[in-house]
Amino acid sequence: MTPEGDPVTNEDRTGPTARGSALWDRLAGLRAAVRSRESIVLAALGLLLFLVLATGNYLGLW
User: Fold this and answer.
1) Is the pLDDT of residue 51 over 60?
2) Domain locations in the chain as residue ranges
């Protein structure tokens, strides 16, 4: 990258623009982490539901 800007996108990466893009990069990372955490929680809840249903079926509750 040159001081004049990014040769591919012709953007100036100095000053507020660079700080703004870094902020958006961080937000994108946070969104990905939250999505990942949501997936883990949903998988755990699904496993818990399966175990409850399987145990109930084994014990003859339903």
Assistant:
1) yes
2) 36-62
Residue written as token pair 């507020």: 16
d(CA 27, CA 29): 5
Query: For residue 2, which phi and psi values (nearest 5 degrees)?
Result: -100, 160
CA Rg, the chain, in Å? 24
27: tokens are 């937000």
Tell me: pLDDT of 53 over 60. yes
Buried b (16+ CB within 10 A) or exposed e, 8-38: eeeeeeeeeeeeeeeeeeeeeeeeeeeeeee
